[in-house]
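--- STAGE predict ---
source: upstream dedup step, 1 unique chain passed
mode: sequence only
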Amino acid sequence: MKSVWPTFLVLLFAFWIGNGQTSFAATDLERILEAARAQADGQGTLKFTRITNGGRFTGCELQFSGATRDWRSKGGELVKFMGSISSFYDRGKNFAVFIKLRGEDFEFDSNGRLSAKPFVPQQLTLQAGKSNYGPGPGVQRLQCENGYPCWIFSPPGSQFALGYVESLMTDSLEFRIARTASSIDLVLNLAELKTKEENYPEYLRFAGCYEELVRHLSLQD
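--- STAGE serialize ---
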């Protein structure tokens, strides 16, 4: 997936060239850094994959990467997030959503240098339709590969599946991410990453794939 950071490289090049010999007034530097934060906020990429096994359709996956600003915990500094959301068709089993997610905090020091520090979300709540699904029955937190925490959402009954498709069709599916067990710090809406034209077809393909998944689940073929 394409990087979301070219704006930083352009705006901060003047500070890095010549090993920092170029200088700016503090107010000028902060203005440039704020412009970089604002430009990167909400930018990202989506990549859809239709999943098959032996030529047989089994599920849908949307990989994502992007940036948002954390106003609650970090005073508006940027957070880069990456991961995937997927659903699989498994004969005779309940509908489930599988999410991988990790993040990196980005900060600028007084000289305009950029640093990144990984963080692992402690909790994830999924808003689907008019309901929120967090820790509790039908929600599991696992440890996946490469440092990714994972969540499996599979609440009993049909309300979750119906709310999930409603949120996909109305661009309202949200991740509510907690840095600690008792906080809600970040809200991510993947549909908002459609601001880049190339993302929009990927989101539509994912939503269309989900409709195909629902047909398989209803027919239980």
